[in-house]
Specification:
Distance between the termini: 54 Å
Bound molecules: heme C
Number of strands: 0
Number of helices: 6
CATH architecture of the largest domain: Orthogonal Bundle
Structural class: mainly alpha
Shape: globular
CATH class of the largest domain: Mainly Alpha
Helix content: 40-55%
Order of helices and strands: HHHHHH
Largest sheet: none
Radius of gyration: 21 Å
Strand content: under 5%
């Protein structure tokens, strides 16, 4: 009997391996081949982006607001829902739920996503910095 006639899991496993390696290589090169994946950002670098760009007005501590509301546990939350923060009417009536896509858009250009809102921040144009920041925000939402 010829052994090659029967498919063996070991052979299938071996053919999966190179695909897996190229996916890892692509991630290392920063070219996410599995579609836009914010979770692929670097949480550590994201914490630096947060310190530089957001910490003047936000904390990642639950219940601790500054000029802006606490953004702990943000991903998946409806916009403007903290009871101890005085939001603008614009963001209260926006109907936004903070998905990763919405956050990415808001961080890119707050005034475009919430016109008339009171977040006085010009936006973060660097996509890599946003990806890392998103990974950090996701980390604090789990
Ligand atoms: C100069 C101050 C300031 C900076 C800098 C700033 N924000 Fe804000 N942010 C605010 C204010 C004020 C609000 C409330 C907006 C409103 O009521 O319209 C807000 C609201 C938000 C909200 C909505 C929260 C909710 O509960 O719905 C998110 C998300 C957010 N900011 C993320 C960020 C991120 C991420 C950064 C850094 C890239 C950042 N902000 C930088 C002041 C700031």
């Amino acid at each position: 009997m010829n052994q090659n006639d029967s498919p063996r899991p070991v052979t299938r496993g071996a053919s999966f391996f190179p695909q897996c390696m190229s996916a890892i290589a692509a991630l290392i090169l920063g070219m996410a081949c599995i579609g836009p994946s914010w979770a692929a950002g670097d949480v550590k670098l994201g914490s630096k982006v947060f310190s530089a760009e957001c910490s003047e007005c936000h904390t990642m501590k639950e219940g601790k607001n500054k000029k802006g509301p606490s953004i702990y546990g943000l991903v998946g939350r409806k916009a403007a829902t903290l009871s101890d923060y005085d939001y603008s009417g614009a963001i209260k009536s926006s109907g936004i739920v903070w998905t990763e896509e919405k956050l990415d858009a808001y961080i890119t250009a707050p005034a475009k996503v919430v016109p008339g809102g009171k977040m006085k921040y010009e936006g973060l144009s660097n996509p890599k910095a946003r990806q890392d920041l998103l990974a950090y925000l996701i980390f604090f939402s789990q």
